[in-house]
Write a structure and sequence with these properties.
Length: about 150
């Protein structure tokens, strides 16, 4: 007869601050994904296209971008800021997609897609999985020896 060591494991919940941080980041990434999905959806379904001219740089406390000026289909001259394209010269022209209900607030360069939504959703899922691995860990209960009959 042979002596064989057997290890038994059980999944246990343990509070970890790293798990709390991962859950917080997952919620933030999911919120950002929902916001970007809504903005992109609204622009794709009710947005209009215009030719915009770069009139300057924009540097805020939380982001940098370019300031664009364009004329809406109703004839109003609008200035808006976009952070999607940061390196442009004053006078350059770009096609933009804007929301007629909120032309200066909801503005994107033409051709943008749901890539930010996909990245943020992937980040949220990754942080949720990481939080699960942090909170629920395998714990070794005991190591026992028993005799094996062969």
């Amino acid at each position: 007869m042979r002596k064989v060591a057997v290890r038994r494991f059980k999944w246990r919940f343990r509070f970890q601050w790293a798990g709390v941080v991962c859950l917080t980041l997952a919620v933030l990434a999911g919120t950002y994904a929902a916001y970007e999905a809504r903005e992109t959806y609204l622009l794709r379904h009710r947005g209009e296209t215009a030719s915009a001219t770069v009139v300057g740089d924009h540097a805020g406390w939380d982001h940098t971008g370019i300031t664009l000026e364009f004329v809406t289909s109703s004839g109003n001259r609008v200035r808006g800021v976009t952070t999607r394209y940061q390196s442009a010269e004053v006078g350059d022209r770009f096609p933009v997609l804007y929301d007629p209900a909120k032309p200066s607030g909801r503005l994107q360069l033409y051709g943008t897609d749901y890539s930010w939504v996909g990245l943020a959703t992937g980040g949220a899922i990754a942080f949720l999985l990481l939080a699960g691995f942090v909170f629920f860990r395998e714990e070794q209960l005991e190591e026992t020896d028993f005799l094996q009959p062969f």
